[in-house]
Please model this.
Amino acid sequence: MSHAPSRLRVAVVAADLAVRIRLASLVDQTGHKLVEMEGGPDAILSDGVEGTALCAPIVAVGADEQEFPGLLPIDATAQQIDAALRAVAAGLTVRAPGPRRRTFGASTEELGPLLTPREVEVLQALSDGLSNKAAALRLGISPHTVKFHIEALFRKLDAGSRAEVVAKGLKRGLFEV
Model:
């Protein structure tokens, strides 16, 4: 079984000299050996502008193209670049996580209301057209408790009818049909 070298040979390809210098500095920080393209690199660190058909797997920093084996954001750290270079040299694909849909900085409107699991179940029952009594039977709770949860849904979703509660819940992705 062969092991990957602890120190990779990495070439840098970028359209702009300043970017090449920055990427070369990041390669230096990772402890890998900076080589020219003719030096048979194990991996290539690129800005994604040039070199899509090169002789080694590419980690593109700040590129939008999905064709590269490695794709990192423009602000990737040396540690992230090191991990990505090692991964693509080993034949893996690397993608930085995309932006999260729900964040602490998002507004309440973007997040939607916070519903309890039971409120979601009642909302689902409403979307199925069940009466309070039928929803209570399905969920194993009293009709009075169903009514309590429906009132909470009206308040949290700022709705005036059962149909509006269901429509707003669907629109905000609070449940699936």
